[in-house]
Amino acid sequence: MPSKHARLDRFISARKGIPRRSVKHLLAQRRVRIDGDIAADANHRIGPFTRVEVDGDILQNLRPRYLMMNKPAGVVSATRDSRHTTVLDLIPEEGRDTDLHIAGRLDFNSTGLLLLTNDGRFSRWLCDADSGVIKRYRVTLRDPVTADMVTVFAKGMHFGFEDIVTRPARLTPLASDGTHQADVALSEGRYHQIKRMFGRFNNEVLALHRYAIGPFELDDALAPGQSKAIAPQLPAQWS
């Protein structure tokens, strides 16, 4: 799906295989419609969900889609894989769409909230650390959480391979008696980040479950592998 807007004349030229000067003739003859209205401006910006018609021929008519899934363990966060079941395979065939992509992946054995969409702007907003969207995880560990871990997570941790320092993350033990479970809240999602952060303390992550991404919380009614359509409240500046 296109991630950027395009000028109307360039869009029609590419879709119809005609010169842009021919597109201007189509506009002058009132043969082009945008979202049902007659179009006249060759410079009009066409987005991924703008309906475009020429002589009644629909060149684009995508509708934004947003899905919430409860990802089970043992499923690949991908739309295609030759060896493993993918999250797209779990969607009923009538609702499966090749335009869907994943907005924030989960590891093969991790479980929980996964969001899928055909809206590139939405997924970039969710995944960009600069957006400040907080992802929340429930972690089960081999060894108890310590106060030192909480402090280091909050300060950020240096990853030598990438030569970066992670953004501050909130680590919250679920009990005060040396619990093996904790909540982790962070605004980025680097490769195996949570497992690597606990690995610094030689503490193995036994299970990792994401239950929230920003304002989206996993619906408890969704069994592992199930999904449902959602209608998110999008940022006001997008309207």
UniProtKB/TrEMBL annotation:
<feature type="domain" description="Pseudouridine synthase RsuA/RluA-like">
    <location>
        <begin position="66"/>
        <end position="198"/>
    </location>
</feature>
<dbReference type="InterPro" id="IPR050343">
    <property type="entry name" value="RsuA_PseudoU_synthase"/>
</dbReference>
<dbReference type="InterPro" id="IPR018496">
    <property type="entry name" value="PsdUridine_synth_RsuA/RluB_CS"/>
</dbReference>
<dbReference type="GO" id="GO:0000455">
    <property type="term" value="P:enzyme-directed rRNA pseudouridine synthesis"/>
</dbReference>
<dbReference type="GO" id="GO:0003723">
    <property type="term" value="F:RNA binding"/>
</dbReference>
<feature type="domain" description="RNA-binding S4">
    <location>
        <begin position="7"/>
        <end position="49"/>
    </location>
</feature>
<dbReference type="InterPro" id="IPR042092">
    <property type="entry name" value="PsdUridine_s_RsuA/RluB/E/F_cat"/>
</dbReference>
<comment type="similarity">
    <text>Belongs to the pseudouridine synthase RsuA family.</text>
</comment>
<dbReference type="InterPro" id="IPR002942">
    <property type="entry name" value="S4_RNA-bd"/>
</dbReference>
<dbReference type="InterPro" id="IPR020094">
    <property type="entry name" value="TruA/RsuA/RluB/E/F_N"/>
</dbReference>
<dbReference type="InterPro" id="IPR000748">
    <property type="entry name" value="PsdUridine_synth_RsuA/RluB/E/F"/>
</dbReference>
<dbReference type="InterPro" id="IPR036986">
    <property type="entry name" value="S4_RNA-bd_sf"/>
</dbReference>
<dbReference type="Pfam" id="PF01479">
    <property type="entry name" value="S4"/>
</dbReference>
<dbReference type="InterPro" id="IPR006145">
    <property type="entry name" value="PsdUridine_synth_RsuA/RluA"/>
</dbReference>
<dbReference type="InterPro" id="IPR020103">
    <property type="entry name" value="PsdUridine_synth_cat_dom_sf"/>
</dbReference>
<dbReference type="GO" id="GO:0160136">
    <property type="term" value="F:16S rRNA pseudouridine(516) synthase activity"/>
</dbReference>
<dbReference type="Pfam" id="PF00849">
    <property type="entry name" value="PseudoU_synth_2"/>
</dbReference>
<comment type="function">
    <text>Responsible for synthesis of pseudouridine from uracil-516 in 16S ribosomal RNA.</text>
</comment>
<protein>
    <recommendedName>
        <fullName>Pseudouridine synthase</fullName>
        <ecNumber>5.4.99.-</ecNumber>
    </recommendedName>
</protein>
<keyword id="KW-0413">Isomerase</keyword>
<keyword id="KW-0694">RNA-binding</keyword>
